[in-house]
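ok here's Beta-lactamase family protein, seq below lol
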Amino acid sequence: MLLVGAALASVRVVEPAQGSAAQGAGAPVAANLALAKVTPAARRDVNYAQIDERLKRLVEKPGVVGVAVGIVENGRITFLNGYGETVAGSGDKVTPATVFRWASVSKGVAGTMVAKLAEQGKVDLNGPLVNYAPGLKLPNGGEYRVTVSDLLSHRSGLPKHAFDNKLEEGQPVPVLKAQLATVGLGCAPGTCWSYQNVAYDGASDIVAKATGKPYQEVVAQQLFGPIGMSSATMTRDGLMTARSWARPHSVGRRPLEVTQPYYDVPAAGGVNSNIKDLALWMIAQAGGMPTVLSPKVLATIHQPLVKTPGERARLRKFLERVGDAYYGLGWRSYNYAGHTIVGHRGGVNGYRSLILFDPQLKSGVVALWNSNTNQPGGLEFEVMDMLYHLPFRDWLELNKVPGKVPTAPAEQPEEQPTTEVALAGSGGGTTRGR
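and the structure came out like this:
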């Protein structure tokens, strides 16, 4: 089997004195440094030649500019590669060292960080928000009833995407958090699921109050540094000063401006990194770095707290294999062809991201790309199908005949609204998730 250029790619991803290391991060755990290398011996189920060929075809599609992909099997990185360009028409190639934005994949960082502090006895996940994020105000004094766990699983009672429009206008986040008290409730707190960004950044306040340090600093010290995520940052400057960084593009490949607002809610959408670091993050989430993330923390954040059947509507072209969908503490989970998988997607203007893995197999896929198309999202299920030895499906839609009416509805972008019908006692809501 052709193993493409992954082994060569692994030597290009180390960026010393940049990213989290430059932010005062904790020292990498020695055992984790070895995990940053591509390990051919761990390859088992994925057809890497086929993946490489399909990704080369993908970047020829009109809406795609650049893509970086990482695959993990058996807890080791088995593939890292970049395709396409950092800027459309520039000739500057995407490599495994190219930095992109994670967007809402950042929410898993927030959930993980708060759960780690809970393990340290510094936060009570069942305690009211008012104890930890006093600046976050909710309708009818909801901050006295909504728990930390409710916030991290989008059960605050707010209507979907409360004040995202004002955030995108550049209004100050502390003011917006206080003004959430003026928003009409979408449901009683704790009884429905409704995706948030401004409110979700209450997680950064929780971390800051519990530790006495800024959110970004704590994440760098307790997560990114020990994991070995040398390129990871949480600022606009961190993205734009990287040695190689992908510029954002419209679906028509028009370059866009890198905007500030979602960096102002770092717990909701502020992380940047290269694909190697996202792959390392996935290894840690799959249980491969227990000195950083204990089994207790992982069980806490991945637990299915609220059922989200509207997620199946968003992923409706995959319903042949996607079963029940849930949300935990910054993480989605699914039944996929009888297997439990965990992940998240993200999107801010000009960038998209995904992470999806099977915790039992310690295997999965990560991808980052720099345009508003959702087409690369099908990659995650093509990789999972290989891991499970399922019949091939053209989830990337590379073989679709132009102009032909699709046999199944196109995938709904994560930015579009879907209705959620929650578990008994958890309620329902709507989302336009980033």
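fwiw The two ends are 37 Å apart (CA to CA). kinda neat tbh
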